[in-house]
Amino acid sequence: MLAECFAVELYAYAVMSNHVHVVLHVDPQAANDWSDEEVAERWVRLFPVYMDEVIDERLCREKAQRLQGDPERMVELRRRLGSLSWFMRCFLLR
Length: 94
Known about the structure:
Layout: H1 2-5, E1 8-15, E2 20-26, H2 28-33, H3 36-46, E3 50-51, E4 54-55, H4 57-68, H5 71-81, H6 84-93
Antiparallel strand pairs: 1-2, 3-4
Helix pairs in contact: 3-4, 3-5
């Protein structure tokens, strides 16, 4: 579930014929409390690596390790995972 990757709790939703309503609680501080490993794992769940249209677990693990080795990128990913804007962006892509 998308909300499991973000620092977001989904309380309720309603799918209408031409739009959707959601009731959310966003907790950006929660993302700051996650380890680098957890941040990278959540990000890779959102944006996995595909090989021949199938998720490649080995490449996903490598991507997560590369992310963890980049402190500036980790700061950015924490910010995104605690962002309502990024949650909605990913929600609309699904």
